[in-house]
Amino acid sequence: MILTVTLNTALDITYRVGSLRPHASHRVSEVTERPGGKGVNVARVLAALGHEVTVTGFTGGATGRVVQEKLAAVPGLVDALVPLSGSTRRTVAVVDERTGDTTQLNEPGPTVAPVEWSAFQEAYADLLPVASAVALCGSLPPGVPVGAYAGLIRTARSFGLPVLLDTSGEPLRRGVAARPDIIKPNADELAELTGSHEPLRATQDARRRGAGAVVASLGPEGLLAATREGRWRATPPTSAQGNPTGAGDAVVAGLLSAWTDHLPWPARLTRAIALSTATVLAPVAGEFDRGVYEELLGQVSVTSTPSAA
Amino acid sequence: MILTVTLNTALDITYRVGSLRPHASHRVSEVTERPGGKGVNVARVLAALGHEVTVTGFTGGATGRVVQEKLAAVPGLVDALVPLSGSTRRTVAVVDERTGDTTQLNEPGPTVAPVEWSAFQEAYADLLPVASAVALCGSLPPGVPVGAYAGLIRTARSFGLPVLLDTSGEPLRRGVAARPDIIKPNADELAELTGSHEPLRATQDARRRGAGAVVASLGPEGLLAATREGRWRATPPTSAQGNPTGAGDAVVAGLLSAWTDHLPWPARLTRAIALSTATVLAPVAGEFDRGVYEELLGQVSVTSTPSAA
């Protein structure tokens, strides 16, 4: 079982409107709802690929109940969310049908009480003996200590489990020092961590700070990986035009999927690129088309890269 | 007990954001939620005034459960909503803290199945023997026949109950023909019903179409009432600057409250104006300040008006 952790789960709501005009009243023509938060998105992709996956993190209130009802409908996915007295946040994406633009409204996450954070850490430790890998994903809600991921990484490593960390800012900086096996920053997150805007140099620097492997996601340019076994660039076959929502979470899912299948780095990067490109090309945000994914697997270019001077 | 009917109930959500910019991502600084729909708003004001009030209409899904949880917390208010297989709609009001402007996003209402409409009509008839007055408020959800209010008015009248109708368009036109005791159109709704943009003429015309009394709400200019007993204009003491959300529902509550207290028309209009002005002046949309309301009661001007030529 692959365990994904989402401390800041969400219900992602999408509204379609004719044209969004500030100060006007709008009739929403279509409403869609999905459980969200990065680790939940990763878990959904892993489940679609046929992996057994367990979701943990927090859930609370009426919105949390909706998230759990929807997770229960995903085959292969087990819900191990921990109850919270506060309410799970909603995000509202308002899609303008005229321009295709999306306007995003994100509710603040609920505050986690110390007793709830303790209960989560216990539940997490109880799940690790049956896990094969752990993904720690997304931002920290208020009340969770900034060093939270560092602690969760150490616990997972004490069970001998590989850990992937996908977060940003100070939680990333603290987490890296606890030696996660993989981090997956985007260009901005990597620059904030290392102070370098040169990706090759920055990935190597992030490894020196403690990350076993650094897989930097560079948007349409694909992935740059610095690992113990070597350095690679992986690029998609086409410049995919579409909705980038969920593309980063698909990269995480691809890396974990190939890792737990014991594939070498080039195959892990290939799976990550094929999944993220299939996600960008999918008509529904955050979903991927299996046929497109399998076709793309044969078309990803992975090349070995020399180290920065 | 006063019975209010809201066939299109809602959960009214308010988001505060720094500044709403289309195509940008926004952190919501404050989230508030209230049960909504016109009849629910009317009932909340009536309960705050000390009346026993029962709310009926439809409720469904996770959002309906939240509406019902919040109604259960209102003292003096009884929830008699009828279950629906579809989900109660949400409305999202996005308040721009920089400009004070509100941008409104309204989900479509759920579709009511014929068997659900029949179940509602039975539940409604069961509530009438213990009611003292009925308010039918708001739009009709998909699936409810356009003549719905006409039928509900006839049923209430068969129990000898006074009925107030507050809706618009074809449901108002059909409803008026069933002879409700009061209708409360705004200027646009009255013009659409009668074809006349001259309020005095239009109120008299609406009475000829079947309404026992017509109380037209003319925004900051107050109310114009055409009744069996006479015609009056009622105006607020000050031009109230504030949020007009819920002001119309406060008028309905004021009319019903004074009516069931057996007060004559000028006192009914006074209560309606004082409540709606206290609602506009309140810091929270749709709420009213009791102290302001009681102070305003002594300051409303009600003058008798001759009939149109």
Mean pLDDT of chain A: 94
CATH superfamily of chain A: Ribokinase
Q: Order of helices and strands of chain A, N to C?
A: EEEEHEHEEEEHEHEHEHHEEEHHHE
Shape of chain A: globular
Total domains of chain A: 1
Q: Class by helix and strand content of chain A? A: alpha/beta
Computed Rg of chain A: 19 Å
**Which CATH architecture of chain A?**
3-Layer(aba) Sandwich
Biggest pleated sheet of chain A: 11 strands, mixed
- Poorly predicted ranges of chain A: none
Helix content, binned percent of chain A: 25-40%
List its salient traits:
homodimer; 309 residues; alpha/beta; UDP-N-acetylmuramoyl-L-alanine:D-glutamate ligase; 11-stranded mixed beta sheet; 4-stranded mixed beta sheet; 10 helices; 25% strand; globular
Verbal overview:
The structure is a homodimer of 309-residue chains. The first copy, chain A, is an alpha/beta fold. In chain A, 37% of the residues lie in helices and 25% in strands. Chain A has helices at 38-48, 61-71, 114-127, 148-158, 169-177, 187-194, 199-208, 247-260, 265-281, 290-297, and strands at residues 2-6, 10-17, 25-27, 30-36, 53-59, 77-79, 82-83, 89-96, 102-106, 133-137, 163-166, 182-183, 213-217, 223-226, 231-235, 301-304. In chain A, strands 1, 5, 6, 7, 10, 11, 12, 13, 14, 15 and 16 form an eleven-stranded mixed β-sheet that branches. In chain A, α4 (148-158) links the parallel β10 (133-137) and β11 (163-166). In chain A, α1 packs across α8 (247-260), α4 (148-158) runs parallel beside α5 and α9 runs antiparallel to α10. At the A-B interface, β3, α2, β8 and β9 of A face β3, α2, β8 and β9 of B.
